[in-house]
Amino acid sequence: MKVKFIVACLLAVCALRVNAKSFISRDGQTIVDSTGKSIQLKGVNLGGWLLWEGWIWGGGYTKEGEIAKNMETISGKEEFTALRKDVYLNFINESDIKAISELGMNVVRVPFNHRIFDTAYCDGIGWQVLDSVLKWCDKYHVYAILDMHSAVGGQSNFFIADPVKPNLWQAESNKQRTINLWMQIAGRYKNRKIIAGYDLLNEPIPTKSADLVELYDRIIKGIRTVDTNHMVIVEGGNFAKQFDYFTRLPDNNMMFSFHIYTWFGGEPKEKLINFAQLRERLDVPVWCGEWGENSYEVIEKTLAAFAMPENKFSGWCFWTWKKTPNNYAALNAISVTTSWKDVIVWCGRPKVKTTPNHDVAVAAMKEFRKAMRYEETNHDYRLGQILSKDALVK
Length: 394
Fold this sequence. Notes:
- This protein is α/β, with parallel strands linked by helices.
- The protein contains 15 helices and 13 strands.
- Strand 10, helix 12 and strand 11 form a beta-alpha-beta unit.
- The radius of gyration is 21 Å and the shape is globular.
C-alpha cells in the first residue's frame, strides 16, 4: 500500500511537471516551448480590430469612444451596429491568420478594448471573437498574446487607451474592474496552450511609478488564483520604455515587453541598450511588443539591431498587420474611398469638418466593411519578405 502511494505521488508530480512545460514559459532570460526548447516569438500586431484607432482606418489620432459616438450620430444606431459587428467578425478572420502563418511568423498580439466584453456596448461579442481567433491560431500553429490595449477608464490619456474620466489611475473601481476582467479572461483560457501570454497593460502612463508596480502585483495575484499556466507580460511606463522602477520581478513566469519607434531619429541599436541591460539586471526575458511604422531602411536596421548577439531578445511583434495607407509601408493596405475618408476624419473633428450626408456615410461604411477584409487589401510583398526572412530565423 505504501509503495502504491509513493508511486501515485511520483506520477502526480510528473504530471504537474509535464503540464507546466506544455505552455510557453520563462526559463531564466529566455522563453521556452512545450519541449523546453528556447523559442523566439516573431509576428504581428492585429491593430485596429478590437481597439479602434482613427489613423489605422484612414482618419486622425482619434480614440474609439469618439469614433463610435460620432459615427452612430450620422449613420443611426442600426447601421452603426452592423458596422461594429462586421469589424469584430471580419476585420481579422481566418484568412489573416493563415497568411501570417504562411509568412513564417509564429505569434499574433491581439490588442483589445475592455469594452468588447461589455454587453451594453456590443452585446459582449468579445468572448466569441477571442474564441474564434484562438481556434484559428490553433489551426495554423500561431501563438496568441492577449493585450489589454484599453483598461477600464484608460491607462493613459492618449487616444490609444480610449480614455474616459476618471481614468484607470484616478478610480479604485476602475482598477478593481480591470483586475476582475483579467481574472475572467484567465479563468476562461487557462488551459489554452496556444496563448503565449497575457500582456497586462499596453503603454501605461501612471500618475506615479509606484501605482503601476502595485497594480501589476494586484492583477497578477488575481490571475494566479485562476491560472498558474500562462506567462504574464509586463510593459514599462512612458509608452513601454521606462523600467527603472522595477527592482524585482512581479512574477516568476513572466517577461518584460518594450516598444520602440524611431520617428524622431536615433539609431535603433542605441535605443535597445537599456532593454538589454534590463534583461541582465533582473535575469528575465525581454521582448519587443511593438515596433515598425517606418521606412524599409529603418525597418531593416531595427531587425538587425534586434538580432545583435548581446541583446538576446525573445522576439518582436511588428505594428501592424493591416491599415489604410499613410507615409509608411503597409503590410496589407486597406483601399478606402473619399467618402469613407470624409466620414472617419469627421469623426475626429466634428466641430471643424462638414457633417457627412447620412446616405453617403452609410454607403461609405459598407464600402469600408468590404475593403477591410484581407482578400481585398493590397499586400506589400517587399515588406512581407523583409519580415518573413527574419521571422524564419527562430
